[in-house]
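User: For documentation purposes, I need each entry recorded in a consistent format: the amino acid sequence on its own, followed directly by the corresponding structure tokens. There are two entries in this batch. Please keep commentary to a minimum and don't merge the entries.

Assistant: Recorded as requested. Entry 1:
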Amino acid sequence: MLTSLFIARFLRARGVRRVFGHPGSDTIDLIQAMAEEEIEFILTHHENTAAFMAAASGELTGVPGVVVVTKGPGVTNIASGLAAAHLDRRPIIVLSATVDREYLRTNPHQDVPLVALGGLMAKLSEELTSANAVELLPRAYRTAITPRPGSVYLPISPRQAVAPLGVPDAVAEQAIAAEVRPVPGETPDVSAAAALVTRAKRPLAVVGVGVTGADASADVVRGLEALGAPACVTLQAVGQVPCDHPLYIGMYGWHGTPVKRMIDTADLILTLGLDGWDIVTPYRATVPIVSLDSVDANDRTFQPVTAGLTGDLGKMVRALAERGRGPRGWGVAEAQACYREIRERELGVSAEHAEADGVPPQRVFSELRALTPRDTILTADAGSHKSMAAQAWPAYGPRSFIVSNGLSPMGFALGAAMGAKLAQPERTVVTVVGDGGFLMYAGELATWARLDLPMLQIVMVDHSLTQVKTQQERRGFGTAATSFRPVHVGDLVRSFGIEAVRAENTAAFRAAVVRGVAAGRPMVIETILDAREYRRVPTPT
């Protein structure tokens, strides 16, 4: 059996039905082998978009998204996508070409130390060969899906791709048929942690992105209910506790003064699946911290940890919920008051706003939420609108709010939305991007149009990189580096064959969303913002 055929058959047996990427002449044998196994190749116009699509698909399905790119610039181009999946804890497998070793002395064209480069940004980085494929590919797959999930990188030379495997076909067939499961976590003794939780009168939980990778959202919600603990989430864990749950208090870190106030009032903090890169503001506690996580229970952002347990997150939460119950001094009333204050005061539209100034960014999310189905998937790009969305977009379940917050690359949102729609075509998908991020990956409108995916894209137009520009203005600096000339977004979008409408006020935006959701085809809303609202949030007391 040829190595490329083994790769294709192994992936097909795991449930992979499509791969994403940008080809080179040195990957065509691998792509053809996949086609023969009925694995579709989705062409993107930048390698990072392929990784963003794969990452969203991997998170939603649990099957790692697969990417195929060429050597040299194909790999250096995809560095952001590879690193984002690693930091965001989304399972992807990146396959690239590499230079045949025997050619290096006479033809070192595009020679880059790819394995070393991948090792800086992935859970695993090893060269795939005909000799090691039957052992390495299952191990790499398992690494990608084992909590915390992430990216793996496997370069393979074109000569190795068409070489026969170094084992008999019968051995290869066994590897293809064998089940590949995540490495199981242990279930440690929770007695000491449970004793601390039992004594607490005002416990508060901080739910992190590790809950997503461990698929433990349902266990966490039931655990919070059993313990009577109000809960906040980190940015990328939005939706792990439904925003309309009585114990939900909001997202920690942005527009969240009431959340910080409740944390300061707690007499015990319970962190679940916390990952430090997803924390905007580290917290130094003066009360006990009980930390549960699949990998690292001593996260450096919420310190000092009194009792840290690492293992199977769902089982640990269930055990703690059973043994940590006790009389509480707060609960639903305090949680609901906190979340209400965020939504009504911290995210309220200011008195200075006038509709002639454009659409307040807060209303973009409130209108979207009111006009889209409950299970809608929202993807948000890097920028001020992402931090706004984390509080202003109510997410009602896990894997319904998809952002990159580990690496936070611009241009993530459209690729993630396309990957999400391909993975779960029955769900409504909306993607929100600033005009800066829109311009950075405008070529992917061609990918979207070719795939003809019925999605809605909101382009937040303010002719600047607002998140950075705001900091410049606050410090009295010039803003030439963060401002750019207006672009006719609608004209550009329509040139790709995608419908575009322009909304200059809330009423026009509302009408456009209704039209876009019902359209059943690609559509962009060019939304003219009152960007000053970013600087006015939170509103004064």
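Entry 2:
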Amino acid sequence: MRRCSRLALIGFFCFAVSFAAAQEEQHHHPAGDPGKLGTVNFANSCSPAVQQQFTRAVAMLHSFWYDEAQRQFQAVAQADPKCAIASWGVAMTMWHPLWEPRGPNPPQMESGQQAIQKASAIAEKSKVTSREAQFIKALSIFYQDYQKVDHADRVVAYEKQMEALHDANPDDTEATVFYALSLLGSASSLPPDKTHSRQKKAGALVEPILKTQPSHPGVAHMVIHAYDYPDLAPKALDAARMYAKIAPESAHALHMPSHIFTRLGLWDESIASNLASAEAARKHNLPNDELHASDYLVFAYLQTGQDQLARNVFHGNGLGNNLNGAQFQTIYSVASMPARYVLERRQWAEAAALPDPKDFPGGRYAWADASIYYARALGSVRTGNLQQARRDIDKLASAQQTLKDLKEDYWAGQVGIENAIASAWLQFAEGKKSEALEQMRAAVTLDDAADKHPVTPGSILPPRDLLGQMLIEMNQPADAVAEYEKLLAREPNRFAALYGLGRSAELAGQSEKAREAYARLLTMTKGDERAQVREARKFVNEEKKSAAGK
């Protein structure tokens, strides 16, 4: 693949050397070593000749290796025309419940419906087990009348059918794992539930199986997704450290542990996980997986102060700027990384100079454009270009309305939070400081009520961090201390939170708390690339000298 010629800031959008070409290359990669995808036993009535390939396809499906799993299922269906469950597998690969909470796009829905209708037709004529028939019936309900019935309603109907399948086959691992996935799919498609009731139920289903079947890829995978939340993440740490060993051939399996490492602030483990994932993705020509791993890699590098390594991720492996055929996680990665890179480093001039987003598909992905407008609005405010900030805030409002009109409620809410934050800082710059602080607190309240999307490593810049920063600038450092402590409870070891806690505690005269925060920051970071690290080291060293002199 050709490389982008420009390495300036605007070259971040070239992180993608020809994505369209890379997408095409995905159709010509090896299927993967079946011995390196985990151990699966999905009982079925297909011919003995296709059993190994069918098992490999199911293992890939458990690790969300959707494109290759689809090809494997199609090959099984061609080799054994009476294998109804193979067409069920094809239909399953068309739906990515944790990546696309609003469901597949129309071509995927049509293809999935055709595949499950084929499975149903074969099942009526061939001898299939009652269990296979239940799998097919459940998925048929998801695809049935998709043009008329709301996506969330069909997701919940599918979940209920999978519950019945599980109840009829309580000792069947595959039924249990796919039921757990259906619960997580419903949780992603429905309004946020801060009790995480479905996620906890899914985790309770699969967690015991991890002890008896420690090499099953779907079990470890579902444990990680079920507990990918700040309050639940510790429950998934064992599964996170197992999954990559279960299915080392899968780029997604190598990446997924980093979801838990990110929630717990284990940055070195996250970096190792995503370096391995990106390498596997390149090996199998999987640009979507490589970009997804790169997003988490950039995030982890930035938390450890390794800014040059984070920047190198952008320029080390491009993947085209034609994103029309991209998957959700690809669009998110390409949109978030440049915004994250400038804002995490507090490089306001770089943020203000971000170019207009031109390559995102738009519509339901209007939040991708909004990521850039948000970063640019903050950068413009902080560098005094209030006119540009107002223009970008208007664009944020427009993106939010587009998402509302399309009933993309989650992302409309996320863009609304970004709009509120940028507007608050604009008010602050205009001298309306009490109004700015009130609006900033409102943005934090909205963010606290929202859940993290399953794809993202975290917000581009936490609203509570920006609230703390505003409080410091309003000479209220003690209040800022409280906000940073709340942020660290939710996002352990986040660079901005540790530095913010240290700085606000220092200004509030809480020297011991400042020293502890700065010391934690220094333990976590590598090198002195960032000024905040040098400030922290200076404070800690001076405290040591002061203590020694007493």
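Summary note for entry 2:
The two ends are 63 Å apart (CA to CA).
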